[in-house]
# Entry
Amino acid sequence: MRIFVVRKGDSLYSISKMFGVPAEKISSANALINPDRLSVGQALVIPDGAAPQGEIEINGYAYPNISSGVLNEFLPYLSFLCPFSWHIDSAGGITPIDDRELIKNAYASATAPMLTLTNIGASDGFSSDIAHAVFTDMSAQNTLIDNILSALRERGYYGVNLNIEYVYPFDRQGYNDFLKRLSEILHSMGYYLSTAIAPKESDTQEGILYTAHDYTAHGQCCDRVIIMTYEWGYTYSTPQAVSPVDRMRRVLDYAVTKIPAGKILLGFSNYGYNWTLPWKQGRAAQVVSNTAAVNLASSVFAQIKFDEAAQAPYFNYTAPAGTRHEVWFEDARSVKARLELVAEYSLAGISFWTLNFSNPAALEVIKSIYSVEKII
# Structure
């Protein structure tokens, strides 16, 4: 696999001739809507059939409404599939989702489905109070564990993925104790346990997103730990990279001192954001798929730039209505840069958030470097 950055005057035809690869193959690998219109600065994956040089695990989160086409695009490259998500309540109950088709398709592709549990409350946000209840009320905790085991048996899940966020700092030890207890129960019954944790850079990092996530405890109790190294650029942030590699590196420098590197799955964003300029506090950016971002740049004749520190592409354009925009997304270069972190830090692999957006170019880069480890 090679990556070519489009220059002024390049065409798909000239690039095809340059590399001796059919234009149709390049177009398909990059999901080009209009192959006759390329953007200066656009990164194109040039397939060359090279054999992968290593093996990694790949986890992916998917909402139940994922299209069958997109799901089937990803499943051959997944070790784990996490349907998102069953919701915990303060009494230890769990609300199921329509996950049976996802579980069936996962097993058909030798992908391990994981029962994904969150403390998302009635307002669709993560609830600190729900987490507090199950960490401090033993009756609620006992009920939760019983419900988890019933769901594992009934749905045929391979194990549990905990995505418990916005935990009160004073519940840090309660979370650790719950992890230890759940880990011992699940492992005694042959089930797997993974967690998703915030991207910390030190033991002393403050904030409700970070403080209660004890990297050492997760590393001791869990089979895999997903570090959510994304959302630096998010819906209400200033325009910036979603997963800047320089920030990801700082997280990993800390993480590998607390968690065995071979247990870490590096969070891998599979989307970008489109911000309206000038940026205003409280105004939401629009989520955009990486493929759609590239095609948008082409349609508005925008030049794609590349931030070397973040290892992320971005562009600016003016909409027909006259509004100015800035778009940050991921391309083949940023995918390759993040995969290089996996090798550099000897990590177990990566974890996609989320699978709901098609991304042939990213998969082309991944499969040229790594094969996926199927654990079932």
The chain has a mean pLDDT of 97.
